[in-house]
Design a protein that fits this description.
- The structure is a single chain.
- By secondary structure, this protein is an alpha/beta fold.
- The protein folds into two domains: about 5-220, Rossmann fold (3-Layer(aba) Sandwich), CATH 3.40.50; about 220-280.
- The protein contains eleven helices and 13 strands.
- The strands form three sheets. A six-stranded mixed beta sheet has the order 5-6-7-3-8-9, with helices on both faces.
- A hairpin with a 2-residue loop joins strand 1 and strand 2.
- Helix 3 (about 95-105) packs across helix 4.
Amino acid sequence: MGNAIEVVGLSKRFGDKLAVDDLSFSVDFGRIVGFLGPNGAGKTTTLRALLGLINATDGTATIEGRAFTSLPEPAATVGAVLDGGMFHPGRSGRNHLRTLARASGVGDARVDELLELVQLKQDGGRRTKGYSLGMRQRLGLAAALLGDPRVLVLDEPANGLDPQGIRWLRDFLRSLAAEGRAVLVSSHVLAEVAQTADDVVVIHRGRSIMQAPLDQLMAQHAGGTRVAGPDAARLGELLRADGATVREDGGAAIVVGDRSGEQIGRVIAANAIVISELSPVAQSLEDVFFELTGTEGGPA
């Protein structure tokens, strides 16, 4: 069947502004891909182009090898949640789904099945104007799943969810991927992406920075190894002479950025160096994200 999603050389210009610039990435079936980038990086523009809501200036964005507008059965192919979904405030959650189901040729039994799946069965009869943001997110997920699609495109699905809801979403997305579905999820909740995604695509200013399996990305950007002790400075000199990257870490400690613990240990043993600590420096996905995009934490 090929890639579930394939974006090739995608560009989108709004007047003088180039929102997406020659962007390429792919999403495989059975994988959850985190789509990451600072505000204004072009994530939502890319998703809207993928779903046929806007026309690309150049390049292609396809689902199962076709543009969205050419899909023979769009509801059975791809489900999407953008901007938290749109609901008539006077309509119940159940009736909202029933309206969408009839437009897609889906029976009411599927509506009740999905309300239970997203844990809204008890609230299905309530008007959506009384729903919390998290409940609206779950209703949007139910709407995206009406046609039992093989591909899901989700823009900030964790927005408004409490910790319990975020954990539910994590397990829910994992179960969908385990069934062989492809999930592309844009999110600002980097700690949650680190626990959920198989792969990540990082973009900045409309351009691709990196696409890689999450474990590979974290390994490539490991924080280094911290060494402390009375001979740390002498060890640093020896490692620098051998071409290693070494920085001071306050007091009698250094951080070695490009040598394994085993390699450092051999230098220590060969030179009878006394140390009190040799430990890896943990690096979070958030740290790697800021490093890749050249941004800092703070309001955006």
